[in-house]
Amino acid sequence: MTKNRFWRLDDHPQGDDFSSALSLQETELAPLEDGEIRLKADYLSMDAGTRMWMGPREDGYQPPLPMGIPMAGQSLGRITESRDDRFPVGRLVRVFGQWADYSTVRPDDSWAVLLDEDIDDPRQHFGVLGLNGWTALYGTKDILGIKEGENLVISAAAGATGSLACQIGRNLGAKVTGIAGGPDKCRYVVEELGAERCIDYKNQDVAAELKKIDGGINAYFENVGGPILDAVLANMALFGRVAVCGMIANYESDEGVPGPKNYDQVLMRRLRIEGFLLPDVPERGPEYHALLKDWYQNGKITVPFDVTKGLENTLVAYGRMMTGKNTGKVIVDLRD
């Protein structure tokens, strides 16, 4: 029998102490049931939204994970066994599986997608061509409806989704301002991603810098929440739009957090605020993939990878992402 290592969720994490809440386990793989597929992972994706799945909150966009099960997350690899004719053995696939060497899933329950083989870097199926890329395009183009010449502000601009949203905004003709932590990240946002400017929230007064944007902020791609959202609301243009993609500043809380101090500006400036989740529009996947692939192959968009090697080091990678030590997309490389 084949052995499978996996990370088990044993308890709700406290803050960024993930090692006390998850443990690395090993078991034998069970035979596949009808309708299941199994893939051997080449890469695991580290995604901030999974932090809420680890907690006890019942009011999230999905129920909390039960204790004692394998930790859920995106996995990319090749199918080693299949009892679903749509997913042949040997094909490259991306699924919502487990933090594990092998993921066993039902394709329709795990958003399984058979992947292109003509991409120079298959990791981009977790990057430009992955759910981060699709989310950035959905939020920027469809939710915010960016028009050429508008002022677009993006928080967590050096992260996986934020860095892609910066480039998509630029490609759509927006004047992009990023918000990131530290001079190196800000330099990257401007020099590599094509933003017009970047505000270093660790060393600059965000509200004061945003006030310098001529005409105010027409659109804001929100990944953070907290004080940065307050700073943005105070500097929005009339009839501005806010697309709420993530609220990483709040994910550690086991309860809801107070709303923004400057919430009254929603009325004063007649703002539209809309939360969005990519799983609401699965039918848009082929459309998003086609546009992003065209941009990628023509050098108009990319994303770097923050790579950690080895399943045993998954919590190191996850901690890097959750504490903002990464630039670009955080993945775990499981290849031999």
3D architecture notes:
The chain is of the alpha/beta class and 336 residues long. The protein contains nine helices and 16 strands. Strands 3, 5, 6, 7, 8, 15 and 16 form a seven-stranded mixed beta sheet that branches. A six-stranded parallel beta sheet has the order 11-10-9-12-13-14, with helices on both faces. Strand 15, helix 9 and strand 16 form a beta-alpha-beta unit. Helix 2 crosses helix 3 and helix 2 packs across helix 8.
**Total count of strands:** 16
Strand-residue fraction? 25-35%
Spell the H/E element sequence.
EEEHEEEEEHEHEHEHEHEHEHEHE
Number of helices: 9
User: What value does the average pLDDT take?
Assistant: 95
Compute the CA-based radius of gyration: 20 Å
Biggest sheet record: 7 strands, mixed
Structural class given helices, strands, pairing?
alpha/beta
The share of residues in helices is: 10-25%
First-residue to last-residue Cα separation = 19 Å
Throw out a few tags for this protein.
336 residues; alpha/beta; 6-stranded parallel beta sheet; 27% strand
In short:
The mean pLDDT is 95. This protein has 9 helices and 16 strands. The chain is α/β, with parallel strands linked by helices.
